[in-house]
Design brief:
One of its GO terms (molecular function) is extracellular ligand-gated monoatomic ion channel activity. This is 5-hydroxytryptamine receptor 3A-like. By secondary structure, the chain is an alpha+beta fold. It contains seven helices and 13 strands.
Length: about 400
């Protein structure tokens, strides 16, 4: 009898409106797309409404409830107002109708919400995201009105994100109902894969000052560290959160770490040159060979030849004294050169130790300050931009 009526349009009352009551909602966060800043969720709605056309007299039909096929009666449409993609499916092919015209049904809404999640504190990010539930649009006084009563979260942990709480709310004049979803990232995995490697690489760069300046081992090691960190950033570029109103500060963190390591490498290269020459001489300012050098070489050759020529004129004692003077002069020059190299190395070591302590202090201070900013700072985002745009329109 009920199926034969064919009531597949909205029930009509005197005021041409229909109240859709939702006594219970189950919300589940499927995933959070941090790259595109989208919230993918599933909502199970237990809905009920009254249809006078489906009433019957129990004296004629002694049944208080019956089940009817969904496609044989009218059912309301629920969708997510701020969703990029929103689809509603029936949890069952049948619904329940009571003798007084009260209809019970369960629908499932799968939605992909454009939620500008605050990723500034990533990987310590936490934010809220509204999921607006709407029925069909009202034309004047006709249409449907939605009444939400209770919501309950299910499957709170999905991947790196955890659903802290879900709360019902209204926006505007009470005609826009939404579920405010509180999300928090579980920072263990992002911390191990993103922050911890940067801390260890910078720590290794600090410890590399224990290597000697001479020989080039330190410079080669620092260059290897910089190249490794660059490759690390290239690999993680696709996994980092996308840019939004509050861009993740971890991008700036990676940039500062790379600048610190490159600065440390350049200072090490400069100090290696200082340890060798006692100063910095670029290729265009390097010492040139003076013309007198050739003359001095000729004088040395003459000095070596003259003893051979005048050996007949000198006795044994004078020849020995000349040889001894040459040996003493050579040793004095060698000792002076050795002392000069030691002074260069001592000066370079002093600069190296000074830069080491400065670098250590800057690195520790930076990591403490950056961690504090990531944990404590709050970036404000207007999550109801979609409602404001509709109101202005």
């Amino acid at each position: 009898m009920l199926i034969s009526k064919g009531y597949i349009s909205q029930p009509q009352y005197e005021n041409c409106s229909q109240v859709i009551s939702v006594p219970y909602l189950e919300y589940q966060t499927i995933t959070v797309d941090t790259k595109n800043l989208r919230l993918i969720s599933k909502i199970t709605a237990y809905i009920q409404w009254r249809d006078p056309g489906l009433m019957w007299n129990m004296s004629h039909y002694n049944y208080d409830e019956v089940t009817l096929p969904v496609d044989k009666v009218w059912t309301p449409e629920l969708h997510v107002a701020n969703g990029i993609v929103s689809t509603m499916t029936h949890a069952s092919h049948d619904l329940t109708v009571r003798y007084d015209g009260l209809v019970y049904h369960i629908v499932i809404i799968n939605a992909e919400v454009n939620c500008d999640v605050n990723m500034f504190n990533y990987p310590f990010a936490a934010d809220t995201c509204p999921v607006a539930i709407h029925t069909s649009e009202r034309a004047g006084e006709c249409g449907t009105e939605l009444e939400l009563h209770h919501v309950w979260p299910t499957g709170k942990t999905r991947g790196d994100w955890k659903t802290e709480s879900v709360v019902l709310g209204t926006q505007g004049y009470g005609d826009t109902h939404y579920i405010m979803v509180s999300l928090k990232i579980q920072h263990t995995n992002p911390f191990i894969t993103l922050l911890l490697p940067t801390i260890l690489i910078v720590l290794t760069d600090v410890v590399s000052f224990a290597l000697p300046l001479q020989g080039g081992e330190r410079n080669s090691f620092k260059v290897t560290l910089v190249l490794s960190f660059t490759m690390f950033l290239n690999i993680l570029n696709e996994k980092l959160p996308g840019d939004g109103e509050c861009s993740p500060i971890i991008r700036i963190h990676f940039c500062i770490c790379l600048v610190l390591m490159v600065l440390s490498m350049l200072v090490s290269l400069v100090l290696t040159r200082v340890a060798k020459d006692g100063g910095i001489r670029l290729c265009c300012f390097s010492k040139k060979v003076e013309p007198k050098t050739a003359r001095s070489m000729e004088d040395n050759v003459d000095e070596e030849i003259k003893p051979d020529i005048s050996v007949i004129q000198l006795d044994g004692s004078e020849e020995e004294k000349l040889i001894l003077r040459k040996v003493v002069k050579f040793l004095e020059n060698f000792q002076a050169k050795d002392m000069e190299n030691e002074n260069y190395q001592r000066f370079a070591d002093t600069l190296d130790k000074t830069f080491f302590w400065i670098y250590l202090f800057v690195a520790v201070s930076y990591f403490c300050a950056m961690t504090t900013v990531m944990v404590m700072y709050t970036c404000s985002i207007n999550h109801f931009f979609w409602h404001n745009d509709n109101a202005n329109f």
